[in-house]
Amino acid sequence: MLKILVFLFSAARVSRTSNVGKFEVPYEYLATRNAINRGFLMKDNFGSTIQGVYDTNCNATRCFFPIFLNTNDNNFAYQILTDTPSQCTSYPNCLLFTKTQYQNYSIVFGDPSIQDDLSDNRNYNVSKCGALGFTRANGLNWCFSLTQVSTDREDAESNCGLEGEFLNGFQFIEEQEHFLEILNQKSLENNTMIHLGAKRASGATTFSWTSSTVSTNNTLANNLKTLLVNGSGVNLVLRLINNTWLYDSVEDTVLAYYSCGWYAN
Prior knowledge:
It comes from Caenorhabditis angaria. By secondary structure, the protein is an alpha+beta fold.
């Protein structure tokens, strides 16, 4: 039987440092990251070998080392995750460990904002996003929420704005796919609608994101099949039709759930 590893990282020392620290990284966030390798390390030479594992696998980019279980008295297992969105199609099963096996601690390498210190458990700045986020090419974490309260467009925008947030949008196709995947896990009812942060000009058939902070990629405001059922409406919503998410255009007074988006850092 696999046993949970409770390992005192404060005893470990790396041979040379690459902005490394020990952090409480949420399991839900790790489940969205890209798994690139796995292996075992000897307990008695952990400090002298983990730097080499990082150098070999991470190419000087940010990586997470959640160390989660031991198999015998001399070795413990690790998994390497880059801080890029996972290509796994069976979320979150690309992780080698369950949430109950994970002790909430990861060694984080390659983040220039952290100092070399393995002695303390600190909250990592992805915790605001958890699984509801995506690391964009600029290195910043774009977080999003889903409020399952039917609201008109004006109130949805206002509610997001109260927290300095925006109606959500997508800069990358992987980001859009991740968002839709999360929606599909929620067992929402047919014909559910979700306000997003894009509009179309009256009479036009294409949408544009209303804030460049949200997205500059208008292709992703138009790449899902568009219903345009409501005719005169100019506001973009996602609409669930027979288990498929489609775009639709609705008037200001139409009630729908809404998604806010914001940068975590």
